[in-house]
Fold this protein.
Amino acid sequence: MKDIGSIWNKWDLHIHSDASDGKMNCQEIIDKAKEEKLSVIALTDHHTVKNIDKIKELAKLNDIIVLSGIEFRTEYGQKSVHMIGLFPDNYNDIDLDGKFLTENILNPLGLSESMIIQKGKEADGTKDKSDEYYFKKGIFLVQVDFKTAANLIHQYGGIVTVHAGSKSNSIDEEMKHDGTSKKNVSIYDSLGPVKDELFKGGYIDICEIRNEKDGKEFYKSEFCKPSITASDAHEKSVIGLGSCWVKAEKNFNGLKQILNEPERVNFNNPEILERVESNPLKFIKQIKIKRTANATMNEIWYDNIEIELNPGLVAIIGNKGSGKSAITDIISLCANTHNDEFSFLNKYKFRSPKPYDRSKQIQAQIVWADNSCSDWITLDSSCDKTNVERVKYIPQSFLESLCVTEDDKQFEDEIKKIIFQHTPLTDRYGKNTLDEIIQYLSSENSNAERVIKNKIEKQNLEIIELEKKKTAEFKNTIENLLKNKEEELVVVQSQKPEEVKKPIDDENVNEQKQSVIKSIENISREVTSIQQRIDEYIAKRTELNTDIQNLSQIKQSLVLMQSNISQKMEEHKSFLLKYNLDINEVVKVDFRLNLIEDKIKSLTKQRSEIVESLDGDDNLYDKKKKKEEEKKAKENELNGPERMYQKYLSEIEKWNKRCNDILGDDQTEDTINYYKKIQHYINNNLEQELKNAQEMRNNLVQELVDLKKITLSTYNKLYAPVLDFVERFKDKMRDYPIQFSASFIVRDFSSRFFDIVSQSSAGSFNGKEQGFNRLNDEIDHVDFNDSSAILHFTNNINTLLLSDVRDNMNNQERDIESQLKKGHTKQELYDYIYQLDYIQPSFQLMMGDKQLPALSPGERGALLLLFYLFIDMDDKPLIIDQPEENLDNESVYNYLVHFIKEAKQKRQIIIVTHNPNLAVVCDADQIVEMKIDKSYRNKVSFQSGAIENSIINDRIVTILEGTYPAFNNRDCKYSIVEHKL
């Protein structure tokens, strides 16, 4: 059996022939039904089935199904409420042909042909007319008891329809009991106790109304009764007018489906038919599988398998190992799926090279709804990811990998693909993914973040230097250096030259010696002056070196800035021209780098002059040396006392210089005053300066967070369309509480942190498990969408590194460097903590009160399927292999079923399931049962049809291994076929 299952067809279930009061014979009815493209009709003559057998024979030749029907006049109402009995062709192995219906329905109700003829004669008062004349007159003079007739119809498996709404002879028109005017009585007002009993007592199955607005929703909500429309044709031209569409097999069992699924009736052209017609390449019509012409393997496998596929929901069922997943793998391969994690077509199964690669000897092709075909390809082919993906395939292994992984990124990526579909084309900026849009919109913001992070890096360096000065080690070092210098000063002071008295001036000392002494004094002053100039030049040369280097770096930075601006101008030039904007008019920047170059040249010249003075041919050092030699020569001209005194003056000068050099000043390194200044700084200024530096870093971190929040707002804007979608359909999703938001998340902080910090060193994070738990506890208690909380987190981590908070450690101070792994630095750690790369904008998805990481694999699977089935805007065929595999029963029935039903309203769905119950509760339009005869060379076969098909119904029950009662009681929907259990 190769039935396409339940599809929409036009049904007209109320037509009269010339056997009663109709004006058409059977052939005319069939011809007109064919012209109107009716698939199923019901012949419903008044109180007769005379034409039933004949019209059914004619219908077989025209592919039209005729249901047996009888229209009855009942005792209720002013003009009689009309009811119709519709009957199956066979009931309990009994053929319900015209003869059977006459003998077992009409005659027991007192509607024998002879009795009706007699009624006609009595009413007409004549006896000379034909029996046909009297019969057609008599059929409107007889009535049946409504309940008796309904019970008898049901006794033989029939269905009772009743005229309802505003139709003539309707139960609502004929049985008013409140109000006297037909115009001022609503449907509900017209309900009386008897009518209430007829509906609720099971006597009525279907309401036949005039049109869709004639009480359909009322009968459905108040009594759970479906409604149909029909032509009630008595003339040929009326046949098909007012007919309705029914999605079911074209038989009586198909009609029974609407009793529990009123949505299977449509009063207008069904949307799916319009979609198939307008987008035929979005619906797979058929899959063909066969052996290649040169196949040599003894195994048969697929011997010209051709499966027609329903455009709605197709469920592929079968026992384990029956080849269900093979079909979805093959369909998806032919449709160029980009997800090739196949369950069947893999190297361990059908593509295994041992004993031979079977996939090379089987080929397949799919046919689309417009009868266009894919190329025949062998099953060892690979998908072309550069070409269009014609289906969305979710293999079971792919779904499982998304549900059980601890990494949320792949799961999020799948969700992002669906969210991207909701982004209007006008807001995609020519990008192909959500991440590309985010990157595009955030590019300048990212540049600004890099600038702030560079500032944080420099600030961290400053803080590290300040923290270094705060350490006891640094304090001790300064104290020791100061002490050493003070001791050195004591030693030098103890070495003060012994005083030599100046010789007493003697008036008789000759003028020549007086002149020598004065020359020595003058030369000493010149030497001192030269030394001062040397010191000044050295200081100036140091200053010039620094200034020239700074100017060179500034120039280099400005050159880079100029290049970047030029590059940006070139990037935007063509776009601005689109709007007649000249980039050179928009941006005017004057880089006068020559001014810096001139200043560098000037300073370089000064430096050269100083170098010449210090290192040239006639440099100051040489001049000083000459003067010192000249002084020594003059001293040699003096006598002993004078020479000794001059020597003393020279030595005391050197001694004073040594003392002054050791004392120094607060700017000269390695001097007493320098170290005292540092001590004063440590004791009085360091703490405040460190606080200021840390506050500056906090301000930079706040700026960085503010920039990240701008990116976060981009996320929120991009998620707005899907939020709007969820809001629009909140009624359908009220039992499936999902929430979207964009927020900051911490990604991989712990792993990166412990790449730098050793857990074997003394400190708050000592111990592999204990340290990990302490860090994660800090993370878990922070709201990373709160700027102040982020600042607190960064500083608190720093505090934990500086103070040991473990039990019995009393917040003992710890050196951060001692806690670092080899090869890592404090600068690296601080940059990681404060540059916030681990805080990333991310969409947050919640089901109920659970965030994504807290969802069980089953809940994750349900959530992902919810996206694919309901929120996904793609309309290409969706193929899911075993969607229930990773879900618990609660997730299956709370989420999966509902959204499969929703999804099939907008796209073709093909699912593989081990559990036919899923196909049943999801109202599958077609069941395809796969089989493999392993005893006959692995020959694959299948049968297909609708749920209501008796053969398929039996197969479902068989696969369920006798669990039919649960199946049969599922919403009372599937007691279509009688089963003997």
Residues 90 and 974 are 18 Å apart (CA to CA). The chain has four domains: 7-269, 275-398+875-947, 446-461+687-851, 464-680. The two ends are 24 Å apart (CA to CA).
